[in-house]
Amino acid sequence: MAVLSRLALTASFALSASAAGLGGSWQQSPLTSPSSLSSSQGSKPLISTEALQEAISIDALVERAQKFYKFAQTSEEDYGHPTRVIGSTGHERTLNYIVNTLLDQGDYYTISTQEFPVTLSNVFESQLVLGSSVSKSAVPMGLTPATRDREPVHGQLVLVNNDGCHDSDYPKNVKGNIAFIRRGACAFGDKSIGAGKAGAKAAVIYNTDPEELHGTLGEPTKYHVATFGIDGTEGNAVAEKLAKGESVSAIAYIDAEVKQIQTVNVLAQTDEGDPDNCVMLGGHSDGVAEGPGINDDGSGSMSVLEVAVQLAKFKVNNCVRFAWWAAEEEGLLGSDFYAASLSEEENQKIRLFMDYDMMASPNFAYQIYNATNAYNPAGSEELRDLYVDWYKSQGLNYTFIPFDGRSDYDGFIRAGIPAGGIATGAEAVKTKEEEEMFGGHAGQWLDPCYHQICDDLGNLNHTAWEVNTKLIAHSVATYALSFDGFPKREQETKISSYSETIKQHGPKLIM
Ligand SMILES: *[C@@H]1O[C@H](CO)[C@@H](O)[C@H](O)[C@H]1NC(C)=O
Ligand SMILES: *[C@@H]1O[C@H](CO)[C@@H](O)[C@H](O)[C@H]1NC(C)=O
Ligand SMILES: *[C@@H]1O[C@H](CO)[C@@H](O)[C@H](O)[C@H]1NC(C)=O
Ligand SMILES: [Zn+2]
């Protein structure tokens, strides 16, 4: 968990016309190009996948990466190190650069921003004492409130019955003490609310497996209490004592601040092409507070931007809509806000959404989200197979990874829009088999600098980045040319089976 010395609170974007009010839909704040470059499509060649892939070069991507790193460095004064986290100057510069690069394409795109509020929490200091020892695994949950008066609170740990998902699970003596709750069955946020309603001073949620528990409580309510996650090893030891009737005291301390700021999604849509049949794609413009975020998701945002720049040389049959989401790292906030703000009519115009998050992990695997039509809106599987066919055609290996809600496709699937994407891996450990398939090092994370200070210019595999950006170009060119054979949008959406199986919402666990 980040310990920030200071919050950069200004979210004043130097975007000429981004003054859309809260909740404004994306069309409400078009930005106009200052240049009078003519980009009339008449004289341009019709898009072809070969030509668009050919236009992608690693040199152009690396040049953009150097700029992103410089933007991250502008945050050093506030954060003590480079970062592009929302609310930072590094993120603000990133947004300005994306918009200005799009404006340079003349009137090829209609560019707009969508403003939305983000709740941020910064934990300045925290400690959890269980019995007579300081917990080694305690991590404050994301968006946790502070303990009372930002001071330590003392109490007995009280074991909550069942999973702590119902008010009746909380014994009377939780009042004035610290609730001790098992992970599972409902969201961390619900457990914290349960503890708060029962009068607990704080709550501790323990994992059911040995790993540390990094989660988020989600949007704050007046009932949330200061909440820690601890690993299953510490958790089970305490739970056993409590179950035997032994008493265990605790001291919980969280000094934190929860604040709301405004940030923006950036959108760009081709002026030409059938506006009722859009192929949409995006990456997230923000990174985490811990580092410069050059692979996550500098790489995906830059790939998408480079494809947008190159696409402007061509004529399209179908509309292409690009997005750069903000606040992905805070829980997919930008893409959720966007997908939820679509009217039914606007929703139906999006034939599919393609997510591009982390395209250049140093110890990469070529990963494809295993999005199937059985569990997702029809078309998700056709998109998955487009990626499969392309890697095969290049003689490259690929793996399927779970389509489980960890990135910005989530809001689209929930809104009934077919989606999918590719990635190169975060904190998963490379297997021996994957080493044979992709090279690199078994036993290490696919991105050894995931969410860390070292996610810098050295944290990019150029081969993987170029390969995947060409694949992004292929995906855009294919659907910009034609949706022949691609399923029509369904009015009735099959999203229930997806929602039931999802444990994540963005990078942090919610339950
Ligand atoms: C992909 O998902 C389907 C279910 O939709 C499942 O049957 C299949 O085993 C999955 N494949 C992999 C490799 O995970
Ligand atoms: C694909 O994986 C196999 C092992 O499963 C390996 O022998 C082969 O070299 C890999 N191909 C490429 C292009 O890396
Ligand atoms: C990128 O990955 C390829 C294949 O594993 C490897 O040969 C190459 O050295 C890597 N490049 C960098 C800069 O890490
Ligand atoms: Zn990401």
TrEMBL record:
Tell me, which GO biological process terms does this entry list?
A: proteolysis
Q: From the UniProt record, which GO molecular function terms apply?
A: aminopeptidase activity; metal ion binding; metalloexopeptidase activity
Q: Does the keyword Signal apply?
A: yes
The answer on whether this UniProt entry bears the keyword Signal reads: yes
Q: Which residues form the Peptidase M28 domain?
A: 265-474
Q: Mind listing the UniProt keywords for this protein, alphabetically?
A: Aminopeptidase, Hydrolase, Metal-binding, Protease, Signal, Zinc
Name the cofactor(s). Zn(2+)
PA domain mapped to chain residues: 153-237
Q: Give its E.C. classification number.
A: 3.4.-.-
Signal peptide segment: 1-19
Query: What is the similarity comment for this entry?
Result: Belongs to the peptidase M28 family. M28A subfamily.
Q: What is this protein called?
A: Peptide hydrolase
The organism named in the record is Hypocrea atroviridis (strain ATCC 20476 / IMI 206040)
